[in-house]
Design brief:
Helix content: 25-40%
Strand content: 25-35%
Number of strands: 4
Distance between the termini: 27 Å
Number of domains: 1
Largest sheet: 4 strands, mixed
Order of helices and strands: EEHEHEH
Number of helices: 3
Amino acid sequence: MPLHFAENTAVLEGTVVVDEAEPLAGWLRTAPDPRVDLSRCAHLHTAALQALLAARVKVVAAPADDFLRAWILPLLATAPAGEPAQTPADHPALEEALP
């Protein structure tokens, strides 16, 4: 199973397909201070990405996959609407995730 939920952290592993988007979105709506661990995620369906973006989830572990790290991680690290965007290196949500 590509999704594992703890109290406040979702761990996404391997290929996260469209079927996982709804359980992920539901968990994100109900989890107190939701966080996501992408360290073992190799592929993220856009529906799951949209759920993460909508929740403005904090990333606690960056993906090892080059594409996800270069293109998806910065999307998750952008500031809320109306605030200036930050780079992944200076975004507080990624303090623990980046080397």
